[in-house]
Design brief:
The chain contains 20 helices and no strands. By secondary structure, the protein is mostly helical. The longest helix is centred in the C-terminal third of the chain and has 36 residues.
């Protein structure tokens, strides 16, 4: 507000008798009160992150098996569905971010309508992914269509949900605390998605095929031949299809319940007027500003390599345990150890980053898994060592899970101070980070598949050639360690340390207090004018 306007309002107040003014109008606070988020609000916000993780785990672990063994698609068509779906999933993030940036504020908020309107259609498309149509021709297009539709709709849920971090509180500490709650629930969501899908359809047993040379040796034994009979069934195909539909129904119900809890328990707060524009910058101008913001690019570059490392580990750990280590029946327990370790250590990393700083947490947290990854590749098969590595990997996964979402709001705050005339770009920051993360996921999937194919991987084999075992060691040990080191080196360039973060916090708080003071003065002038 202009200086002259403030003088006029003060002089008008002095001319009025004190009896005409209410006590609360005479004693207006000059500072903005810092309202903390309640634990209930943080929990409700965190629950909103579960649907994305639950459905993602179910699709990631079971969709390929479902397309091949239940829907009985040709492997070539199944590969098209998986790769095109992943590519489309990555493209939808910036597209949804663009449309969100064009969305005006409503009485329900700017982000909440996207979350609520997309939920029922996402659940319907998710159910249809796990439904086998009666017709044989066109099945590939059926699954490709509904897979892409679901990825689009779940993006319409997840991108605004991710950006919601900036609109639940203006306090960095509260946002960091809510992010820790969210990461804990999301890790639990990965466990829940795997458990639900695994318990309902996990009884379907696909026997492995012995090496032909071994079959020639033992073909005189009817007992052995019976054990490796590939036509062995554990239930009818109809029962298997019904089991997948039941699992999809349970997960769909959880999806809807989480969306309702999020919408009821979390209130989206409109950004401060001082941080808004009368004429908002266009999406492409905003995108140019975001991509030219140095801290954002350096943060994405660092987490791109570390995310690729953990995705390589995640995508190949089952094959590594099954074939290289020989723990075919222990894989689910080892995976559970990783997820539980990650879930239990997220509160520790939240305390650690608050106590020692976020960059320190990045270096220690993400690098903590490297000695164990090297150990499991160098030593011979040992179940105890494997569980130790799983727990250590879970600790590091928790840090890699929590820190990006905790550091992105700091980058956005820094951007707001450097570009005070440009606002409303939170969705761009979050959507393009998710885009690059999914891009890393696609790269890891491609690298793994091509590497194993070149090494001579045998589908459904009881054992694999030595070259495949060596390749798996590289994919779960050497490659992730190298990517983690490269990512941590890039983090050295990330400029927002704890001192800069505190300065940004104080500058933003001063800006909000100034806006609040100006708004209060303008409100006083209007009230005084009405009294006169």
């Amino acid at each position: 507000m202009a200086k002259g306007e403030g003088a006029e309002s003060v002089s008008s107040a002095g001319l009025l008798p004190p009896s005409l003014l209410k006590p609360e109008e005479l004693m207006r606070p000059k500072r903005v009160s810092k309202r903390k988020l309640s634990i209930c609000s943080k929990v409700c916000y965190a629950i909103g992150g579960a649907p994305y993780q639950i459905t993602g785990c179910a699709l990631g672990f079971f969709l390929q098996i479902y397309l091949l063994d239940v829907a009985q698609l040709d492997p070539f068509y199944a590969s098209i569905i998986l790769f095109v779906g992943r590519a489309w999933d990555a493209v939808t993030d910036p597209l949804v971010g663009f449309f969100i940036s064009k969305t005006s504020w409503s009485r329900f908020g700017r982000l909440m309508p996207w979350i609520m309107l997309s939920t029922p259609f996402a659940v319907i498309s998710y159910l249809l992914i796990w439904f086998v149509p009666d017709f044989s021709r066109g099945q590939m297009m059926w699954y490709l269509f509904f897979y892409c539709i679901f990825q689009t709709l779940v993006t319409c849920f997840h991108v605004p949900y991710s950006a919601l971090t900036m609109f639940i509180s203006s306090e960095q500490s509260e946002r960091d605390s809510a992010t820790a709650y969210r990461m804990t629930v999301e890790v639990l969501g990965t466990v829940l998605g795997t458990a639900i899908q695994g318990q309902i359809v996990g009884k379907v047993d696909t026997p492995c095929i012995l090496d032909p040379l071994l079959l020639n040796i033992v073909n005189s034994s009817s007992v052995v031949m019976e054990e490796v009979n590939v036509t062995h069934e554990t239930g009818s195909l109809t029962d298997t299809r019904n089991a997948y539909m039941i699992a999809a129904g349970v997960i769909g119900g959880i999806y809807i319940l989480c969306a309702i809890v999020l919408s009821v328990g979390v209130r989206e707060k409109q950004a401060s007027i001082a941080l808004q524009l009368d004429e908002p910058v266009s999406f492409f101008q905003g995108l140019k500003l975001v991509m030219n913001h140095g801290p954002y690019i350096k943060l994405i570059a660092g987490f791109l390599f570390t995310s690729l490392a953990f995705m390589l580990l995640e995508g190949n750990f089952a094959l590594f345990c099954t074939y290289t280590l020989g723990f075919r029946n222990e894989f689910q327990n080892i995976l559970l150890a990783i997820m539980l370790s990650a879930t239990l250590t997220i509160p520790f990393w939240q305390w650690f980053l608050t106590r020692f700083g976020k960059k320190t947490a990045v270096y220690i947290g993400i690098s903590s898994a490297t000695p164990f990854l090297i150990l499991v590749a160098l030593l011979k098969s040992n179940l105890v060592v494997t569980y130790i590595v799983a727990v250590a990997a879970g600790i590091s996964v928790a840090a890699a899970f929590l820190l990006p979402w905790s550091m992105l709001p700091d980058v956005i705050d820094d951007f707001k101070l450097q570009h005070p005339d440009s606002a409303g770009h939170e969705a761009i920051f979050f959507s393009f980070y998710v885009f690059f993360t999914k891009f890393a996921s696609g790269v890891s999937l491609g690298i793994s598949t091509l590497s194993l194919d070149f090494a001579g991987y045998k589908t459904r084999g009881c054992s694999q050639p030595e070259r495949v075992n060596l390749t798996l060691k590289l994919l779960v040990s050497a490659a992730p360690v190298a990517l983690i080191i490269l990512g941590l080196l890039l983090f050295k360039l990330y400029p927002i340390d704890e001192e800069r973060r505190r300065k940004n916090k104080k500058a933003l708080q001063d800006l909000r207090e100034e806006e609040s003071s100006n708004s209060s003065s303008e409100s006083d002038s209007a009230e005084l004018a009405s009294i006169v």
